[in-house]
């Protein structure tokens, strides 16, 4: 019987003690992923994460922008971290790899779509079962986020970062949205509805991210940020 079947059986039979034991042992799996991530990423140096859809084809303009972002960032000594999969993630790793820079992949085990790409450094590939642990690694070891068009996962990572910076839970770092056509409607809604109509955020919260159209603008925003601020751990 698999772990999932044991848990389902325990719920069906209302065996709460068995469920509690299963949850307790799961803690060790969670701890192991944290320890492995911290040990492998602690010495990688300054890195920028590139986010975006796993479904983006090589012929898409945003794929090329992600490749160029990876190249520009590594030219200035930054490593590149991605979610390790295909699409935009592959493109970011490709740009870093082809330029001889550090190329890190934080892959997640999913039943579809996600498999690690070939441009990740062999000693900088991590595999995760838990999304929340993977997100901690992005937040802890990234000195900036470049966010290209993506789906629900990309939105999750974007707003996680904005929330943690907004609430002072982590140090501020630059967040760049690439693609005015893609992100413009969302940014307008944040300004017009979230801020001006409902007053659910402060006006200065809009300064936590920048909207651009090119790889050069994205990289330059990150470079300018660290001309002003000192690189330091996020938490």
UniProtKB/TrEMBL annotation:
- Read off the InterPro entries from this record: LOG, LOG_fam, LOG_family_nucleotidases
Indicate the family of this protein: Belongs to the LOG family.
Hydrolase keyword on record: yes
Q: Write out the catalysed reaction.
A: AMP + H2O = D-ribose 5-phosphate + adenine
Question: Would I find DNA damage among this entry's keywords?
Answer: no
What SUPFAM superfamilies does this protein's entry cite? MCP/YpsA-like
EC id: 3.2.2.n1
Keywords from the UniProt entry: Cytokinin biosynthesis, Hydrolase
Single GO MF descriptor? AMP nucleosidase activity
Which top-level group of life is the source organism from? Answer: Bacteria
Q: Which Gene3D superfamilies match?
A: 3.40.50.450
**One GO CC term, this protein:** cytosol
Q: Give the enzyme class.
A: hydrolase
- Give any single GO term for biological process: cytokinin biosynthetic process
Tell me the PANTHER family matching this sequence. CYTOKININ RIBOSIDE 5'-MONOPHOSPHATE PHOSPHORIBOHYDROLASE (PTHR43393), LYSINE DECARBOXYLASE-LIKE PROTEIN (PTHR43393:SF3)
Its protein name is: Cytokinin riboside 5'-monophosphate phosphoribohydrolase
């Amino acid at each position: 019987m698999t772990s999932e079947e044991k848990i389902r059986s325990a719920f069906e039979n209302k065996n709460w003690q068995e469920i509690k034991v299963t949850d307790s042992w799961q803690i060790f799996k969670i701890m192991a992923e944290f320890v492995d991530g911290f040990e492998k990423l602690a010495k990688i140096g300054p890195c920028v994460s590139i986010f975006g859809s796993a479904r983006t084809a090589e012929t898409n303009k945003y794929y090329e922008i992600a490749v160029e972002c990876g190249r520009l960032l590594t030219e200035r000594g930054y490593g590149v971290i991605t979610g390790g999969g295909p699409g935009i993630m592959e493109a970011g790793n490709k740009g870093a790899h082809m330029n001889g820079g550090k190329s890190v992949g934080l892959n997640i085990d999913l039943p579809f779509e996600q498999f690690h790409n070939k441009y990740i450094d062999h000693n900088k590939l991590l595999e995760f079962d838990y999304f929340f642990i993977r997100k901690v690694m992005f937040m802890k070891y990234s000195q900036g986020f470049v966010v290209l068009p993506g789906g629900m996962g990309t939105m999750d990572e974007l707003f996680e970062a904005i929330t943690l910076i907004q609430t002072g839970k982590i140090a501020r770092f630059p967040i760049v949205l690439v693609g005015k056509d893609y992100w413009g409607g969302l940014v307008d809604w944040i300004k017009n509805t979230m801020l001006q109509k409902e007053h659910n955020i402060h006006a200065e919260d809009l300064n936590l991210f920048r909207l651009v159209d090119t790889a050069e603008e994205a990289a330059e925003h990150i470079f300018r940020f660290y001309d002003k601020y000192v690189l330091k751990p996020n938490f």
